[in-house]
Amino acid sequence: MSQFIDRVTIHATAGNGGHGETSVRREKFKPLGGPDGGNGGHGGDVVIVADPDVTTLLDYHHRPHRNASNGEPGKGDLRHGKNGETLYLPVPVGTVIKDLDGNILHDLVVPHEEIILAHGGTGGAGNASLASPKRKAPGFSLLGIPGEERSVVLELKTVADIALVGFPSAGKSSLIAAISAARPKIADYPFTTLVPNLGVVDAGGIRFTVADVPGLIPGASEGKGLGLEFLRHVERTHALVHVLDAGTLESDRDPISDFEALEKELAAYAVEPILTEGGEQLIPLLDRPQLVAINKTDLPDGQAMADMTRAELESRGLRVFEISAVSRKGLNELKYAMAQLVTEARDQLADAVEAQQQQPATITIEPQHRRRGAKPHQFTLVKEERGLQPLFRIRGETPERWVAQTNFDNDEAVGYLADRLERLGIEKALFNAGALPGDAVVIGDDESGVVFDWEPTMTTGAEHLAGPRGQDVRFEERQRPTREEKRHDYAERKAARAATQAEMEEERRSGLWTDDETTND
C-alpha cells in the first residue's frame, strides 16, 4: 500500500566547482612553451520542478539528502573540466517551498515551473586563463568553489477548483465517486479517507477538479483528528461544498450543528498566502463561495431531516442542494452549480492576470557614466574587538569568493590575491578605518573566514620570483646573434688569449718562474 506524504524536509547540496590546472606546455626543442592549464568545470545545480505526473512527496521522505554532481578539474593542453549535471527534483504541482523557520520561499503553482534550490560552485581558472602581458607564466591556478547547501521544507497543497468538506462518514468519498471517475476507499466507519482524493468533473463542457478532503471534527484547526494535516489542501480551492449528513445516528448531531462546527474550524484556520498566476492572494476560507449539499436524503429519516434544516440554511444566504450519492438524486444540479462557481472564479483570475500585465514595469535608473576610478561598493568593513585587540572584519561576496579560490600553499597565488584585494580598495579602506600594521584582519565569517596580520604594501608571493611579480625570466625571448656579432666575439676572445700568453712569457723570462727539477739539484 502506497503512502501519501505531503510534508517533508530535504537537504540539497549542489556540486562543487572543479579546480583549475597549473600546467606548462612542453614540446621538442621548446621545453617551456607557455601555460596551458585548463579551467575547472562548474558544479551542477539542484533544481525543483513542478511535475504534473507526480502526486506525492514519498520519494523525498525515504531519501531526503540529494546531491548534484561535481565539476571535473581542468587538465593540461588547455583541456577544460566537464560541468556537473543539473539534478532535477520533480514535485507535485502546488508544492510550497519553505525554509526551516516556516517562511515561504516559493510557490509552485504552474506546471513545469522550475526554481534553482542550490547553485553549483564556480570552477577555478587554470593558469592559461590567468596569463596576461604582465603575468606571462602564472605558476598557480584558482580553486573551485564549493556548491551551496540548503535545507528546505516541501509542503504539498492540493491544486483543485472545489473542495468537499464535512464530518467523517458524511459521504464525501461517495459523492466524488458518483460525479467523477475517482475511486476512493469507501466504508461505513469514520476516517475511512486518509488522503485527499482528486476527481475531474464535466458539467456542460466545463471541466474542473474536485478534492475530497479527509473528515473534519471540532478542534481540527488545533490539530485534533486529521483536519490540521489536510486543511492545507483546502487553501488552493476557489470554492467549498459543505457535505452535511442528514442520516446520522448520533443524537447530538444535525446538519445545522455540523455546518456551524465546520464554519468555526474553517474560520480558525490561518490561511497562508497563495502565489498564483494572478499574483499573491490571501483569501480566508470563509470568504470563498460556498455551497451546501445535504447528503443521504434517500434514507427514510434523511429526507425529513433535510426538509427541517433547508430553510434555516437558505436564510443564511446559502444555496442548498438535497442529494443522494447512492441514488444520484440532485447530482446534476449540484455539478452545474459547481461549474458556475468555477467559471466565475476563472474569469476573476483572468482579469487579475490582465490587470497585472497592464501595470508598468518597474524601471531602475542607474547613472549612464560612472566617475573614472569609481567602483561599486562590493564589501563592508567593520571594526571589532577580540581579546582586547582590534580586529577588522571584511564581508562581501567578491572578496570571500576570491579567498575561497586561493590556494594558500602557493606563495604566488597568495600574492595574486593580495593584488586583487588592493585593487578592490580594501587596503585603502583599512587605512581610513585606522588599521595599524600587525592588526588582525578577517575576510568572511568565523567558520570559513581567513585571518591574517595586515601589512601595508603587501608583497607576499613575489619574493621567490627572479623578476617582477607576474614575470618569469625563463620565458623571456632570446635573440640569436648574427654572423658579424659572432666574428666580433671570436676576435675579442682571440686577442684576449694572445695578450694573456704574451704576459706569461714575459714573466718567465724575467725569472719570476723557476724549474722545480733544477732547484732540487
Automatic annotation (TrEMBL):
Alphabetic keyword roster: Cytoplasm, GTP-binding, Hydrolase, Magnesium, Metal-binding, Nucleotide-binding
Keyword Nucleotide-binding among UniProt keywords: yes
Domain OCT: 371-456
InterPro entries attached to this UniProt entry: G_OBG (IPR031167), GTP-bd (IPR006073), GTP-bd_Obg/CgtA (IPR014100), GTP-bd_prot_GTP1/OBG_C_sf (IPR036346), GTP1-OBG_CS (IPR006074), GTP1_OBG_dom (IPR006169), GTP1_OBG_dom_sf (IPR036726), OBG_GTPase (IPR045086)
Binding site for Mg(2+): 173, 193
Enzyme class, spelled out: hydrolase
Description of how the protein assembles with itself and partners: Monomer.
Name of protein: GTPase Obg
Organism this protein belongs to: Enteractinococcus fodinae
Gene: obg
